[in-house]
């Protein structure tokens, strides 16, 4: 009877870990969708860059707004990465090798995509700063 109970506990633990892994993969999928939204915003912001002064000022506001949104999103990404790391550590012996590999790959993909979005926004900020400086220089020399 003791052995049956131990087997039941082990199966329950494994099933729980599998459900948690599936849940985390689904949540990573949701975060990846959110990152796609950021990528769309970046594309629209990039297209809004204009060489005229009002366009440059609007692009500057857009980039700042995008950066603020991305900064607030950083905590969600950090928590998700930590949760997946914890699950991989705690569930290493209960997850199937395929599930473990899929979860680790999803985690790596989320981290790579988030870092790529951050780098892109930083590049946009740099470009926008250059354009703003250009307009300040033009304005000084036109007087």
Question: How do the strands and helices of this protein lay out in sequence?
Answer:
Blueprint: H1 2-48, H2 53-90, H3 97-141
Structural descriptors:
3 helices; single chain; mainly alpha; 91% helix; 143 residues
Describe the structure.
The protein is an all-alpha fold. It is 91% helix and 0% strand. It has three helices and no strands. Helix 1 packs antiparallel against helix 2 (53-90) and helix 1 runs parallel beside helix 3 (97-141). The longest helix has 47 residues, at 2-48. The radius of gyration is 23 Å and the shape is rod-shaped. The N and C termini lie far apart (93 Å). The model has no long low-confidence stretch (mean pLDDT 77).
Quick structural summary:
The protein is mostly helical.
- Mean pLDDT comes to 77
Describe the largest sheet: none
The helix-and-strand class reads mainly alpha
User: How many strand units?
Assistant: 0
Distance between the termini: 93 Å
Shape category = rod-shaped
Over all CA atoms, what is the radius of gyration? 23 Å
- The residue ranges in which pLDDT falls below 50 over 5 or more consecutive positions are none
The proportion of residues in beta strands is: under 5%
Share of helix among residues?
Answer: over 70%
Query: Helix-strand pattern, N to C?
Result: HHH
Task: Please count the helical segments.
Answer: 3
